[in-house]
Amino acid sequence: MKSPALFLPLTVSLTPVAAAPPEGYFELKPGVTLESGESWQDGGRHFRLFGVQACLRGTVYTDSSGSRRDCGEASLVVLAAYISDTRPVCAQVAKSEGAVFVSCYATIGADRLDLANLMISSGFAFASLDGRGLPHHAPYAVVEQAAREKKAGLWQFDDVQHPALMLGQRAADEGTSP
Predict the structure, then answer these.
(1) CB under 8 Å to 119, separation ≥6 — which residues?
(2) What is the pTM of this model?
(3) What are phi and psi of 17, to 5 degrees?
(4) I want to staple 101 with a disulfide (CB 3.0 to 4.6 A). Which of 94, 133, 139, 159 is the partner?
(5) Largest distance between two CA atoms of the chain
(6) Which helix (H) or strand (E) holds 92?
(7) Rounded-to-integer distance, Cα 37 and Cα 34, Å
(8) Fold that domain 25-156 belongs to in CATH
């Protein structure tokens, strides 16, 4: 006589396990104090996305309805949305007297994407330039050019200016380097 087969139910949890950020990374959570479309304060520390320059707050562009809008505010709102929607994690890549420069990645579905790249490719931030006018991170300049050609985000408006041009002009007027 054969013994009856014994079947044990297999329980699989479909609830995703909250994974801690990889070692060396920290979570960029909603609720930080955003200063611009590339910088924020958290716990008394000043952070900046490495290689990114957002529109300067107080600079304007003219939208398709003819209304003048704050370019820096547009960059800030998009960064806030990415933080809220993708829960980025960041790691320090450099430090200056006043800021910790970080590289962050956002998770969208199963993909991990560079947050700076997302900001630039969406047309709401720009590749930052050094004092010689060269990009801090050359691939971001390539992404920026593609966004400009596609007229993504702020690039769709004719009077949007690259903030590096304005910062360079300001530095020239003050007799300093940007």
Answers:
(1) 37, 38, 49, 52, 54, 75, 78, 79, 82, 125
(2) 0.82
(3) -80, 130
(4) 94
(5) 98
(6) strand 89-95
(7) 8
(8) OB fold (Dihydrolipoamide Acetyltransferase, E2P) (2.40.50)
